[in-house]
Design brief:
It is built from eleven helices and 16 strands. With 372 residues, it is of the alpha/beta class. A hairpin with a 2-residue loop joins strand 6 and strand 7. The model has no long low-confidence stretch (mean pLDDT 94).
Length: 372
């Protein structure tokens, strides 16, 4: 029996564990269907809301690049550079729920064996806003969406009761998740912001509310660099800039740290990892830490918008790695390096007797130190 790339995550069967994440590439039914044709196991729609959204005038996403002959990071296209990260300040979908509903139905009718996840967002400042979460959830699931992803993580919303502003509040996360679970007949995933002191706290709120999985990380709050010649931000409108989200290769280690906290804090729960994935060597990090699926954005955006070459590299790389290691399914290696992440005090020192964990030596050690 050969290797099997299929996996079951939150009760849903995926042909492979790779999803195109909620982002500009999943803004339309055309792109989503192209993504399924390319081989993605799942797709998360661009976040759907009920409130009006108007994006900034001008570019919404750019890519930072680094070069070996210079220490400068820049969004300017230069020869000999490599991708460092992506930066965007795009809001959620500017298309209405009425626009999305028939398209969700059309996608699911054409791709019944692929997983379509509807990303949704509403506010939290009133009973009406909480009811909006239920309106979105019921509408999407009634048209065939396989799961719901709650956007509790967008780093640049205009409203204080949306996105990462909810995702930093354990109680609000719990309330919103519970409200959606009251009407959901399909799995509910909570996508959390990495902009928090202890993401385990926020994840606990989601699980208390009934979340079936946690998705992490969304992009990290950030600013674009300033051009040293013009003294203007490299991304701006009329010279002005606001906080946006940093993604791509640069956030891989940061997102891994968040995921390690999550999977160690809740070893029996389900997690979908995001951040810095372009091929299987990066996706493997998330699986070894305990994730059941991995989502991709930046790399796909740079590959015909929906990443046909990226998904081929992910699946072929997974198959080759599994064959080499003697693994048959994802469960053979999921989480096997989770316990290698420990507190700093557990890392071996050359002379363990000289280590006091940052505290003053006590007892006999203190006397010995004084004698020296």
């Amino acid at each position: 029996m050969g290797v099997d790339l299929a996996t079951t995550f939150t009760g849903l069967r995926f042909e492979n564990p790779f999803l195109l994440s909620s982002a500009p590439p999943t803004e339309s039914d055309t792109n989503i269907m192209r993504a399924f044709d390319a081989g993605w196991g799942g797709v998360v729609t661009k976040t759907i809301g009920l409130h009006p959204v108007v994006n900034v005038d001008g570019p919404k996403t750019k890519f930072l690049r680094a070069a070996t002959e210079s220490a400068r990071l820049s969004m300017q296209k230069r020869p000999g550079t490599v991708l460092h990260s992506s930066w965007n300040w795009e809001l959620i979908s500017d298309k209405t729920l009425d626009w999305w509903i028939p398209r969700i139905a059309r996608i699911k009718k054409a791709y019944q064996n692929r997983v379509l996840v509807a990303s949704i967002m509403a506010g939290s400042g009133s009973d009406q806003e909480l009811a909006n979460w239920q309106t979105l959830a019921k509408a999407c699931q009634d048209e065939g969406a396989d799961a719901l992803e709650l956007n509790l993580s967008c780093p640049h919303m205009d409203r204080k009761d949306m996105g990462s502003n909810i995702g930093k509040d354990e109680e609000l996360i719990s309330v919103v998740t519970e409200i959606v679970k009251q009407v959901a007949r399909i799995p509910v995933w909570a996508k959390l912001t990495p902009s928090t002191t202890d993401i385990v706290v926020e994840a606990r709120g989601a699980f208390i509310g009934g979340a079936d999985a946690i998705v992490s990380s969304n992009t990290f709050p950030s600013l674009p660099p300033i051009d040293p010649e013009t003294l203007e931000f490299e991304m701006n409108v009329d010279g002005l800039v606001s906080s946006g989200g940093l993604g791509g290769p640069a956030i891989l280690p940061l997102s891994m740290a968040k995921m390690s906290q999550l999977t160690q804090g809740f070893p029996d729960k389900s997690f979908s990892g995001i951040g810095g994935v372009a091929d299987f060597t990066q996706a493997l990090n998330y699986f070894l830490l305990g994730c059941g699926t991995v989502q991709v954005c930046t790399a796909a955006m740079l590959d015909h918008a929906i990443g046909p070459n990226v998904i081929k590299a992910l699946t072929s790389g997974m198959r080759e790695t599994m064959e080499r290691q003697g693994w048959k399914t994802l469960e053979d290696f999921r989480g096997i390096r989770r316990d290698r992440v420990v507190t700093h005090s557990k890392i071996r020192r050359p002379e363990a007797k000289d280590y006091h964990g940052g505290h003053e030596a006590e007892g006999y050690a203190a006397s010995e130190t004084a004698a020296r």
